Amino acid sequence: MNSDSHINGRPVYIIDGARTPFLRVRGKPGPFRASDLALQCGRPLLIRQPFQPEALDEVILGCVSSGPEEANIARVTALRLGCGERTPAWTVQRNCASGMQAVESAAQAISSGNADLVLAGGTEAMSHHPVMLTPAMLEWLSAWNRSHTGTGRARQLARLRPGHFRLIVALLKGLTDPVVGLSMGQTAEQLAWLFGIEREEMDAYALESHRRLARARDKGWLQEIIPMISTRGELYQQDEGLRTDTDLDALSRLKPVFDRPVGTVTAGNSAQLTDGAALLLLASADAVRRHRLRVRARIIDSQWSALDPARMGLGPVYAMSALLQRRGVSAAEIDYWEINEAFAAQVLACLAAWESDAWCLEHLGMPSPGPISRGRLNVDGGGISLGHPVGASGARILYHLLTVLERNRAVSGIASLCVGGGQGGAILIERTREVKDE
């Protein structure tokens, strides 16, 4: 197991954060492009700060697939937010963990002394991921453009076949690992088989995710959401993936998606495809004092790890265990956990691996770090119930973890994700109002 990245140097504080509602992909482009989502999330967040947007040292955004008109989407967003032409901005891509990578990159910049105030997070408009032409059609078009005579173009038209009109859906292509040739859902099927996770257990986990999200919404625990207004004047205030009417019977009737007809991973126990953005404001102690900012938490450490792409869903186990081992902390000392719900099978497999001494000794070279209480994991639901806009989820789970700590007057928490391609990321935070001298 190779690993890298942890925070050293100056303290890094979380000052504020926000996210948009997560909007379901409905088979056509949604009302917001990725930069629109980031703009609608970032503008109210910056308006409530005691400094002007130009005070930001950097803007860093994660995004897996921005549109061609949004190249370096962080810079596009920063300029639209009014950060000014002198505020650098850059975009990162680490598949499902892109938003977490952006936050960690911001933390590294502050910790090293290269920045004091950074806006970081992620955005993704999965409904706007492109539909592409096949290589055969591109070759045909190239030949057509090279033909300058009527005869030449007539010959080229005669070569046109129905197969040339086949389209490639980039979203589906991107959810398949090019090295092992498996879709993300197929990797979840492998984990279900490896750990003996039954369909009924997956569906029960999915139902609980919806129930927890419904409770959080009804209790008013999702104040992190900033409403959005489309160019048509439509108001979006809530996550669209929540199914308050679902039950185990309805979930059990869904057909397998990735391993037909005998598979166990369905649309009901998988994360929903959604559009959304999430942003956090990070600051150094110097920036806190200069702008009189209210500190809410401190980023303590981070970890990236890698593993077999065919078992990418276990990435959180590798990253979280390495993080705890380096810090000399046991699982029992962590108050709350967020593990992104890419699939119910994936989260359940992480728990099974985490709690198995035999598995941990074989794959991690250490005993189990100790059990993770189900009552302290994803307490307000997750990707299965509210969706997983891949560029934004890493930032969302981290900021939501902070709100959970505050609500429960708890201190420490870990947010973690599995990453397509066989990686895992984790960040440890502690709630604090104390600003330490640098």
Concise structural overview:
With 438 residues, the protein is an alpha+beta fold.
Explain what the structure shows:
The protein is α+β, with helices and mostly antiparallel strands. The chain has a domain at 3-129 and 272-431: Thiolase/Chalcone synthase (Peroxisomal Thiolase, Chain A, domain 1, 3-Layer(aba) Sandwich). The protein contains 15 helices and 15 strands. Helix 2 (73-80) links the parallel strand 4 and strand 5. Helix 1 packs across helix 2 (73-80), helix 7 (184-195) crosses helix 12 and helix 11 runs parallel beside helix 12 (344-354). The model is unreliable at 1-5 (pLDDT under 50).
Are there runs of 5+ residues with pLDDT below 50, and where? 1-5
Number of helices: 15
Architecture of one domain, according to CATH?
Answer: 3-Layer(aba) Sandwich
The radius of gyration over CA amounts to 22 Å
One letter per element, helices H and strands E, the order comes to EEEHEHEHEEHHEHHHEEHEHEHEHHHHEE
Class from secondary-structure proportions: alpha+beta
The H-level CATH homologous superfamily of one domain, spelled out, is Thiolase/Chalcone synthase
Name the quaternary structure.
single chain
Main beta sheet, described? 11 strands, mixed
Cα separation of the termini:
33 Å
Helical amount among residues, as a percent range? 25-40%
According to CATH, what is the topology of one domain? Answer: Peroxisomal Thiolase, Chain A, domain 1
Shape label = globular
Mean pLDDT: 94
According to CATH, what is the class of one domain? Alpha Beta
State which percent range the strand residues make up. 15-25%
Structure summary, number of beta strands: 15
